[in-house]
Amino acid sequence: MAKKTMEVVKGLDLQRYMGRWYEIASFPSRFQPKNGENTRATYTLKEDGTVNVLNETFTNGARGSIEGTAYKADPSSDEAKLKVKFYVPPFLPIIPVTGDYWVLYIDEDYQYALIGQPSRNYLWILSRKPHLDEEIYNQLVQKAKDEEYDVSKLHKTPQSENPPEDAPTDTKGIWWFKSLFGK
Known about the structure:
By secondary structure, this protein is mainly beta. It has 3 helices and 9 strands, in the order H-E-E-E-E-E-E-E-E-H-E-H.
């Protein structure tokens, strides 16, 4: 059965979208450690119109991170279809990896969002705060269902009441290698 065409946000205000977002839930990914917590993304608009992406997660008290760049997939479109490029491994960034980042839903105050991509293999629920009201969470899950995502794969990300701002950094990239093996 053919999948329906995915609805994406039109007219996303990139400036308002910038800043820190906390991962409330996501599909497990080989790019993230299984036991990561306080996972977040920080977006910063650059002068050339691209976006600096800093993804962070904390595992056993150590901070793992990777930086990349996001840009509009089609600069002439008003659809919120972005491409994100990271270089891996994070400790020796030599291999470019590019993925889709589609904003499927964002509230009018830019406080929570649903992010996916065309294969429906990845899904994220993001919030400006580390915790999201359960009713709003359920609404976002329903929106994902409506876009034919298998929401049974959603995994809630543990977030502290006061997420750490700083922690020792995993400078060896061990988290990245472990994530390749599903650890």
